[in-house]
Amino acid sequence: MSTPASIADFRALAKVxxxxxxxxxxxxxxYDEVTLERNVADLRAxxxxxxxxxxxxxxxxxxxxxxxxxxxxxxxxPVGLAGMYARRGEVQAARAAASANVPFAxxxxxxxxxAEVASGAGAPWFQLYFVKDxxxxxxxxxxxxxxxxxxxxxTVDLAVPGSRYRDARAAGGGLKRWSQLLARxxxxxxxxxxxxxxxxxxxxxxxxxxxxxSDFQAWIHANFDPSVSWKDVEWVKSQWDxxxxxxxxxxxxxxxxxxxxxxQGVVVSNHGGRQLDGVISSAAALPxxxxxxxxxxxxxxxxxxxxxxxxxxxxxxGADFVLLGRAWAYALASGGQSGVAHMLKLIEAEIxxxxxxxxxxxxxxxxxxxxxxx
Length: 374
Known about the structure:
Blueprint: H1 7-17, H2 20-27, H3 34-44, E1 63-65, E2 68-70, E3 74-76, H4 89-100, E4 105-106, H5 114-121, E5 125-128, H6 134-146, E6 152-155, H7 165-170, H8 174-182, H9 185-193, H10 204-207, H11 213-223, H12 230-239, E7 244-249, H13 252-260, E8 265-268, H14 282-293, E9 298-301, H15 308-316, E10 321-324, H16 326-358
Parallel strand pairs: 3-10, 4-5, 5-6, 6-7, 7-8, 8-9, 9-10
Antiparallel strand pairs: 1-2
Protein backbone atom coordinates (compact mmCIF):
# COMPACT_ATOMS: atom_id res chain seq x y z
CA MET A 1 0.00 0.00 0.00
CA SER A 2 1.16 3.54 -0.72
CA THR A 3 1.39 6.22 1.96
CA PRO A 4 -1.80 6.11 4.05
CA ALA A 5 -4.27 8.84 3.14
CA SER A 6 -6.89 8.10 5.79
CA ILE A 7 -7.51 6.28 9.07
CA ALA A 8 -9.08 3.49 7.01
CA ASP A 9 -5.73 3.03 5.25
CA PHE A 10 -3.93 2.79 8.60
CA ARG A 11 -6.47 0.20 9.74
CA ALA A 12 -5.87 -1.88 6.61
CA LEU A 13 -2.12 -1.81 7.22
CA ALA A 14 -2.57 -2.72 10.88
CA LYS A 15 -4.68 -5.71 9.89
CA VAL A 16 -1.94 -7.16 7.69
CA UNK A 17 0.90 -6.37 10.12
CA UNK A 18 -0.51 -7.43 13.49
CA UNK A 19 -1.07 -11.03 14.58
CA UNK A 20 -4.76 -11.83 14.22
CA UNK A 21 -5.54 -11.92 17.95
CA UNK A 22 -3.93 -8.49 18.52
CA UNK A 23 -5.75 -6.88 15.62
CA UNK A 24 -9.06 -8.28 16.85
CA UNK A 25 -8.31 -6.95 20.34
CA UNK A 26 -7.79 -3.37 19.21
CA UNK A 27 -10.39 -3.38 16.42
CA UNK A 28 -13.26 -5.09 18.16
CA UNK A 29 -16.01 -4.08 20.56
CA UNK A 30 -18.26 -5.92 22.97
CA TYR A 31 -21.02 -8.39 22.16
CA ASP A 32 -22.47 -7.73 18.67
CA GLU A 33 -20.63 -4.38 18.36
CA VAL A 34 -23.79 -2.33 17.93
CA THR A 35 -22.41 0.60 19.91
CA LEU A 36 -19.05 0.36 18.15
CA GLU A 37 -20.84 0.80 14.83
CA ARG A 38 -23.06 3.59 16.18
CA ASN A 39 -20.03 5.60 17.27
CA VAL A 40 -18.80 5.78 13.69
CA ALA A 41 -22.17 5.96 11.93
CA ASP A 42 -23.69 8.70 14.11
CA LEU A 43 -20.72 10.99 13.52
CA ARG A 44 -20.74 10.39 9.78
CA ALA A 45 -24.49 11.10 9.64
CA UNK A 46 -23.96 14.67 10.86
CA UNK A 47 -24.00 17.15 7.98
CA UNK A 48 -21.80 20.23 8.18
CA UNK A 49 -22.99 23.62 6.91
CA UNK A 50 -20.78 24.81 4.11
CA UNK A 51 -20.29 28.59 4.03
CA UNK A 52 -18.54 30.74 1.42
CA UNK A 53 -16.76 34.08 1.07
CA UNK A 54 -15.77 34.23 4.74
CA UNK A 55 -12.01 35.04 4.47
CA UNK A 56 -10.48 31.88 5.83
CA UNK A 57 -6.93 32.77 4.80
CA UNK A 58 -5.65 32.57 8.39
CA UNK A 59 -6.81 29.48 10.30
CA UNK A 60 -5.69 28.77 13.87
CA UNK A 61 -6.15 25.16 15.02
CA UNK A 62 -4.66 25.69 18.47
CA UNK A 63 -6.65 25.62 21.70
CA UNK A 64 -6.05 25.90 25.42
CA UNK A 65 -6.80 23.10 27.86
CA UNK A 66 -5.80 22.86 31.50
CA UNK A 67 -3.46 25.83 31.34
CA UNK A 68 -1.55 24.78 28.23
CA UNK A 69 -1.81 25.78 24.59
CA UNK A 70 -2.04 22.75 22.29
CA UNK A 71 -1.52 22.83 18.53
CA UNK A 72 -4.73 20.88 17.89
CA UNK A 73 -7.95 20.23 19.83
CA UNK A 74 -6.91 16.58 19.75
CA UNK A 75 -5.09 14.18 22.05
CA UNK A 76 -4.07 10.54 22.00
CA UNK A 77 -6.44 8.81 24.41
CA PRO A 78 -5.46 5.81 26.54
CA VAL A 79 -5.14 2.52 24.64
CA GLY A 80 -4.27 -0.64 26.51
CA LEU A 81 -1.27 -2.75 25.52
CA ALA A 82 -0.17 -0.35 22.78
CA GLY A 83 3.37 -1.55 23.38
CA MET A 84 2.31 -4.79 21.71
CA TYR A 85 1.47 -3.02 18.43
CA ALA A 86 5.00 -1.73 17.82
CA ARG A 87 8.33 -1.99 19.62
CA ARG A 88 7.99 0.03 22.87
CA GLY A 89 4.83 1.38 21.30
CA GLU A 90 3.71 3.78 24.03
CA VAL A 91 7.08 5.53 23.94
CA GLN A 92 6.91 5.90 20.16
CA ALA A 93 3.36 7.27 20.29
CA ALA A 94 4.22 9.66 23.11
CA ARG A 95 7.16 11.02 21.11
CA ALA A 96 4.93 11.62 18.09
CA ALA A 97 2.40 13.42 20.31
CA ALA A 98 5.08 15.57 21.91
CA SER A 99 6.46 16.57 18.50
CA ALA A 100 2.96 17.57 17.36
CA ASN A 101 2.27 19.37 20.66
CA VAL A 102 -0.79 17.30 21.54
CA PRO A 103 -1.35 15.38 24.80
CA PHE A 104 -0.74 11.67 25.15
CA ALA A 105 -2.62 9.68 27.82
CA UNK A 106 -0.83 6.56 29.04
CA UNK A 107 -3.07 3.66 30.03
CA UNK A 108 -2.75 1.91 33.38
CA UNK A 109 -2.61 -1.30 31.33
CA UNK A 110 0.17 -0.14 29.04
CA UNK A 111 3.03 -2.42 28.08
CA UNK A 112 5.58 0.32 28.80
CA UNK A 113 5.68 1.80 32.29
CA UNK A 114 5.03 5.42 33.18
CA ALA A 115 8.69 5.81 34.11
CA GLU A 116 9.84 4.55 30.69
CA VAL A 117 7.44 6.80 28.78
CA ALA A 118 8.24 9.85 30.91
CA SER A 119 11.99 9.38 30.46
CA GLY A 120 11.69 8.70 26.74
CA ALA A 121 9.12 11.29 25.69
CA GLY A 122 8.27 13.57 28.59
CA ALA A 123 5.51 13.35 31.17
CA PRO A 124 2.20 12.16 29.67
CA TRP A 125 -1.28 12.36 31.08
CA PHE A 126 -1.91 9.23 33.13
CA GLN A 127 -5.07 7.13 32.87
CA LEU A 128 -6.07 5.37 36.06
CA TYR A 129 -8.31 2.36 36.72
CA PHE A 130 -9.63 1.43 40.12
CA VAL A 131 -8.48 -1.97 41.34
CA LYS A 132 -9.35 -3.68 44.60
CA ASP A 133 -5.92 -2.99 46.09
CA UNK A 134 -6.33 0.65 47.13
CA UNK A 135 -2.73 0.79 48.30
CA UNK A 136 -1.61 0.06 44.76
CA UNK A 137 -3.98 2.67 43.35
CA UNK A 138 -2.50 5.22 45.77
CA UNK A 139 0.98 4.19 44.59
CA UNK A 140 0.00 4.74 40.95
CA UNK A 141 -1.30 8.21 41.78
CA UNK A 142 1.94 8.97 43.62
CA UNK A 143 3.97 7.83 40.61
CA UNK A 144 1.90 10.07 38.33
CA UNK A 145 2.44 12.97 40.70
CA UNK A 146 6.20 12.36 40.89
CA UNK A 147 6.42 12.14 37.09
CA UNK A 148 4.62 15.52 36.88
CA UNK A 149 1.88 14.14 34.66
CA UNK A 150 -0.24 16.90 33.16
CA UNK A 151 -3.57 15.31 34.10
CA UNK A 152 -5.05 12.23 35.71
CA UNK A 153 -7.69 10.49 33.59
CA UNK A 154 -9.85 8.33 35.84
CA THR A 155 -11.75 5.77 33.77
CA VAL A 156 -14.98 4.78 35.53
CA ASP A 157 -16.92 2.68 33.00
CA LEU A 158 -15.12 -0.60 33.63
CA ALA A 159 -16.58 -1.77 36.94
CA VAL A 160 -16.86 -5.13 35.18
CA PRO A 161 -15.40 -5.99 31.76
CA GLY A 162 -17.73 -6.24 28.80
CA SER A 163 -17.93 -9.54 26.94
CA ARG A 164 -15.96 -9.34 23.70
CA TYR A 165 -16.93 -12.04 21.24
CA ARG A 166 -14.12 -11.24 18.83
CA ASP A 167 -11.46 -11.73 21.50
CA ALA A 168 -12.96 -15.08 22.44
CA ARG A 169 -13.01 -16.25 18.84
CA ALA A 170 -9.41 -15.15 18.22
CA ALA A 171 -8.07 -16.55 21.49
CA GLY A 172 -6.19 -19.77 21.87
CA GLY A 173 -2.75 -21.04 22.64
CA GLY A 174 -0.43 -23.65 21.29
CA LEU A 175 -0.44 -24.18 17.54
CA LYS A 176 -3.27 -21.69 16.96
CA ARG A 177 -1.37 -18.85 18.63
CA TRP A 178 1.93 -19.75 16.99
CA SER A 179 0.35 -19.93 13.55
CA GLN A 180 -0.92 -16.37 14.02
CA LEU A 181 2.50 -15.18 15.17
CA LEU A 182 4.42 -16.92 12.39
CA ALA A 183 2.04 -15.41 9.82
CA ARG A 184 3.40 -11.97 10.82
CA UNK A 185 7.21 -12.34 10.68
CA UNK A 186 7.84 -8.58 10.63
CA UNK A 187 5.87 -8.12 13.87
CA UNK A 188 7.47 -11.22 15.39
CA UNK A 189 10.96 -9.85 14.73
CA UNK A 190 10.23 -6.25 15.75
CA UNK A 191 7.97 -6.77 18.77
CA UNK A 192 7.82 -10.44 19.62
CA UNK A 193 11.59 -10.97 19.73
CA UNK A 194 13.21 -7.55 20.13
CA UNK A 195 10.51 -5.37 21.64
CA UNK A 196 8.48 -7.74 23.78
CA UNK A 197 7.73 -6.12 27.16
CA UNK A 198 9.84 -7.64 29.92
CA UNK A 199 7.10 -6.76 32.38
CA UNK A 200 3.51 -5.60 32.29
CA UNK A 201 4.37 -1.94 32.60
CA UNK A 202 2.59 -0.20 35.46
CA UNK A 203 1.08 -3.43 36.82
CA UNK A 204 4.37 -5.31 37.20
CA UNK A 205 4.57 -4.77 40.99
CA UNK A 206 1.38 -6.75 41.58
CA UNK A 207 0.99 -8.92 38.48
CA UNK A 208 4.62 -10.00 38.37
CA UNK A 209 7.51 -9.02 36.12
CA UNK A 210 7.41 -12.21 34.07
CA UNK A 211 3.67 -12.86 33.99
CA UNK A 212 2.44 -13.91 30.53
CA UNK A 213 -0.30 -12.01 28.75
CA SER A 214 -2.86 -14.68 29.61
CA ASP A 215 -2.21 -14.21 33.33
CA PHE A 216 -2.47 -10.46 32.89
CA GLN A 217 -5.92 -10.73 31.32
CA ALA A 218 -7.08 -13.05 34.08
CA TRP A 219 -5.79 -10.56 36.63
CA ILE A 220 -7.80 -7.74 35.01
CA HIS A 221 -11.01 -9.75 35.27
CA ALA A 222 -10.33 -10.67 38.89
CA ASN A 223 -9.11 -7.35 40.23
CA PHE A 224 -11.11 -4.50 38.70
CA ASP A 225 -13.34 -3.18 41.47
CA PRO A 226 -17.15 -3.13 41.06
CA SER A 227 -17.63 -1.43 44.45
CA VAL A 228 -16.32 1.95 43.27
CA SER A 229 -18.51 4.98 44.02
CA TRP A 230 -18.28 8.77 43.86
CA LYS A 231 -16.67 8.74 47.32
CA ASP A 232 -13.70 6.97 45.73
CA VAL A 233 -13.40 9.81 43.22
CA GLU A 234 -13.20 12.25 46.11
CA TRP A 235 -10.51 10.01 47.63
CA VAL A 236 -8.50 10.24 44.40
CA LYS A 237 -8.93 14.00 44.32
CA SER A 238 -7.56 14.25 47.86
CA GLN A 239 -4.27 12.73 46.62
CA TRP A 240 -4.01 14.54 43.30
CA ASP A 241 -3.62 18.30 42.95
CA UNK A 242 -3.55 18.48 39.15
CA UNK A 243 -6.41 18.34 36.63
CA UNK A 244 -8.67 15.34 37.21
CA UNK A 245 -10.67 14.05 34.23
CA UNK A 246 -13.48 11.51 34.62
CA UNK A 247 -13.65 9.25 31.55
CA UNK A 248 -16.65 7.15 30.61
CA UNK A 249 -19.59 9.53 31.10
CA UNK A 250 -22.76 9.20 28.99
CA UNK A 251 -25.40 10.67 31.32
CA UNK A 252 -25.77 14.37 32.26
CA UNK A 253 -26.42 13.47 35.91
CA UNK A 254 -23.10 11.58 36.02
CA UNK A 255 -21.35 14.59 34.49
CA UNK A 256 -22.81 16.78 37.25
CA UNK A 257 -21.68 14.27 39.88
CA UNK A 258 -18.17 14.34 38.40
CA UNK A 259 -18.01 18.10 38.82
CA UNK A 260 -19.38 17.84 42.36
CA UNK A 261 -16.61 15.34 43.12
CA UNK A 262 -13.95 17.83 42.10
CA UNK A 263 -13.21 16.87 38.50
CA GLN A 264 -11.99 19.54 36.08
CA GLY A 265 -13.09 17.61 33.02
CA VAL A 266 -15.20 14.71 31.77
CA VAL A 267 -14.74 12.47 28.76
CA VAL A 268 -18.00 11.61 27.01
CA SER A 269 -17.21 8.03 26.11
CA ASN A 270 -18.63 4.51 25.93
CA HIS A 271 -15.16 2.94 26.01
CA GLY A 272 -15.05 2.71 22.25
CA GLY A 273 -18.03 0.36 22.21
CA ARG A 274 -16.08 -2.16 24.29
CA GLN A 275 -18.26 -2.24 27.40
CA LEU A 276 -22.08 -2.13 27.43
CA ASP A 277 -23.21 -2.86 23.91
CA GLY A 278 -26.41 -1.14 22.86
CA VAL A 279 -25.81 2.15 24.65
CA ILE A 280 -25.95 5.38 22.69
CA SER A 281 -22.97 6.71 20.77
CA SER A 282 -20.70 9.38 22.19
CA ALA A 283 -21.98 11.76 19.50
CA ALA A 284 -25.57 11.20 20.65
CA ALA A 285 -24.72 11.67 24.33
CA LEU A 286 -22.51 14.73 23.89
CA PRO A 287 -25.06 17.54 23.27
CA UNK A 288 -27.10 16.75 26.38
CA UNK A 289 -24.01 16.68 28.57
CA UNK A 290 -22.69 19.91 27.07
CA UNK A 291 -26.01 21.59 27.73
CA UNK A 292 -26.14 20.33 31.31
CA UNK A 293 -22.61 21.48 32.05
CA UNK A 294 -22.99 24.98 30.55
CA UNK A 295 -19.26 25.66 30.79
CA UNK A 296 -18.86 24.33 34.36
CA UNK A 297 -16.19 21.85 33.29
CA UNK A 298 -14.11 20.95 30.27
CA UNK A 299 -15.78 18.41 28.03
CA UNK A 300 -13.68 15.91 26.10
CA UNK A 301 -15.09 13.22 23.85
CA UNK A 302 -14.00 10.05 22.08
CA UNK A 303 -15.63 7.26 20.11
CA UNK A 304 -15.84 6.77 16.36
CA UNK A 305 -13.47 9.58 15.38
CA UNK A 306 -11.90 8.57 12.09
CA UNK A 307 -11.03 11.91 10.50
CA UNK A 308 -10.46 15.60 11.08
CA UNK A 309 -14.05 16.11 9.91
CA UNK A 310 -15.16 13.97 12.84
CA UNK A 311 -13.10 16.13 15.18
CA UNK A 312 -14.95 19.21 13.94
CA UNK A 313 -18.26 17.38 14.31
CA UNK A 314 -17.46 16.52 17.95
CA UNK A 315 -16.50 20.12 18.66
CA UNK A 316 -19.72 21.29 17.01
CA UNK A 317 -21.71 19.02 19.32
CA GLY A 318 -20.21 20.67 22.39
CA ALA A 319 -16.82 19.10 23.06
CA ASP A 320 -13.87 21.30 24.01
CA PHE A 321 -11.35 18.62 23.05
CA VAL A 322 -11.33 15.26 21.26
CA LEU A 323 -9.41 12.09 22.14
CA LEU A 324 -8.35 9.59 19.48
CA GLY A 325 -8.19 5.89 20.28
CA ARG A 326 -8.19 3.30 17.51
CA ALA A 327 -6.99 5.91 15.02
CA TRP A 328 -3.59 6.22 16.67
CA ALA A 329 -3.41 2.52 17.53
CA TYR A 330 -3.82 1.63 13.84
CA ALA A 331 -1.20 4.21 12.89
CA LEU A 332 1.23 2.91 15.50
CA ALA A 333 0.80 -0.68 14.32
CA SER A 334 1.32 0.32 10.71
CA GLY A 335 4.31 2.62 11.10
CA GLY A 336 5.43 3.23 14.68
CA GLN A 337 6.24 6.80 15.66
CA SER A 338 6.31 8.01 12.08
CA GLY A 339 2.92 6.42 11.47
CA VAL A 340 1.38 8.27 14.42
CA ALA A 341 3.05 11.51 13.34
CA HIS A 342 1.66 11.12 9.82
CA MET A 343 -1.80 10.33 11.17
CA LEU A 344 -1.77 13.54 13.23
CA LYS A 345 -0.75 15.55 10.16
CA LEU A 346 -3.69 14.06 8.24
CA ILE A 347 -6.06 14.95 11.08
CA GLU A 348 -4.72 18.50 11.17
CA ALA A 349 -5.08 18.92 7.41
CA GLU A 350 -8.65 17.64 7.52
CA ILE A 351 -9.53 19.95 10.41
CA UNK A 352 -8.19 22.89 8.43
CA UNK A 353 -10.25 21.98 5.37
CA UNK A 354 -13.40 21.52 7.45
CA UNK A 355 -12.86 24.87 9.18
CA UNK A 356 -12.20 26.70 5.92
CA UNK A 357 -15.26 25.29 4.18
CA UNK A 358 -17.56 25.95 7.14
CA UNK A 359 -16.28 29.50 7.42
CA UNK A 360 -14.52 29.48 10.82
CA UNK A 361 -10.93 30.46 11.51
CA UNK A 362 -10.44 29.45 15.17
CA UNK A 363 -11.34 26.45 17.31
CA UNK A 364 -13.42 28.72 19.52
CA UNK A 365 -15.56 29.56 16.50
CA UNK A 366 -16.70 25.97 16.09
CA UNK A 367 -20.16 25.52 17.62
CA UNK A 368 -23.58 24.05 16.97
CA UNK A 369 -24.18 26.46 14.08
CA UNK A 370 -21.85 24.33 11.97
CA UNK A 371 -24.28 21.41 12.03
CA UNK A 372 -26.85 21.47 9.23
CA UNK A 373 -30.00 20.18 10.87
CA UNK A 374 -32.09 20.45 7.71
